[in-house]
Amino acid sequence: MPPSVRGWISFAAVAGAAAVADLATKQAVFARLGLPGASPPIALIPGWLRLETSLNEGALFGMGQGMGWLFAAFSLLAMLGILGMVARGGALADRWLLVALALIFGGIVGNLFDRLGLPGLIWHAPLERVGEPVRAVRDWIHFLIPGLLDWPIFNLADTWLVIGAGMLLVAALRPVPPADAGASGPPPEVR
Predict the structure, then answer these.
(1) Which terminal residue of the chain has fewer beta carbons within 10 Å of its beta carbon, N or C?
(2) Quick one: how far is CA 52 from the chain centroid?
(3) Are the CB atoms for 58 and 64 separated by under 8 Å?
(4) What is d(CA 90, CA 93) in angstroms, rounded to the nearest whole number?
(5) Do strands 42-45 and 149-150 pair parallel, antiparallel, or not at all (unpaired)?
(6) Does 186 score more than 70 pLDDT?
(7) How many CA atoms within 13 Å lie on the side-chain side of 122?
(8) How far apart are CA 44 and CA 184, in angstroms?
(9) CA 97, 3, 80 angle in degrees (round to 5)?
(10) Residues linked to residue 133 through DSSP beta bridges, in sequence order
(11) How far is 120 from 67, CA to CA, in rounded Å?
(12) Which sequence positions are flagged as catalytic?
């Protein structure tokens, strides 16, 4: 099998696994707890970590509330950009870069699924929105450090996006090997 085909299979496997894990966990938590406010949170580590449903119509940390269609369009453009980078940017030959881009792609897919309203949720409040389809990202992980930090509620897609971005940063900081490294054999002996 050609290396490029193996690379695409690896990319699809990581991106697919990331998206499926995100969507499956959102489905499970929302099926158990319902929409925000329907059930009390579940404490996994009392005072520190709990399962709590939240709907985010914005982006990172809730910025840009109500601009979901803009974020959906940006997500589609980002996905096309990532596919272009994989196809033409040399990512197929760099496993680290390939995994980073696949995690980001999978995270985008998970959150885009929610932004498009595909889970089929319906608003139960506020009154002016009751019965409308929910086009918001489903979040469910709530991390706290008592008296110090109340982190915004997030999901696995957000986690994949952060890990992928961190991996891209590491990749950008790696030294670039010389263009002809290994092409001419061992260095000549000095006499």
Answers:
(1) C
(2) 19
(3) yes
(4) 6
(5) unpaired
(6) no
(7) 5
(8) 57
(9) 50
(10) 122
(11) 19
(12) 139, 158
Among the listed residues 118, 117, 114, 111, the one whose alpha carbon sits nearest the alpha carbon of residue 160: 111
Which tokens is 125 given?
């409040």
Summarize the confidence of residues 58-82 as an average pLDDT: 84
The phi and psi torsions of 176 (rounded to 5 degrees) equal -85, 125
21 vs 41: CA distance, rounded Å: 21
Rounded to whole angstroms, how far apart are CA atoms 116 and 188? 60
Name the DSSP class of 24. Answer: H
In whole angstroms, give the CA distance from residue 34 to residue 97. Answer: 37
DSSP codes, 95-153? HHHHHHHHHHHHHHHHHHHHHTTTT--B---SGGGTTSBP-SEEEEEEEEETTTEEPPP
Q: Are 97 and 171 in contact (CB under 8 A)?
A: yes
Determine the longest span between alpha carbons in the chain, in angstroms. 86
- Say if CB 8 and CB 82 are below 8 A apart: no
Structure pTM? 0.87
Instruction: Report residue 38's pLDDT band, with 50, 70 and 90 as the boundaries.
Output: very high
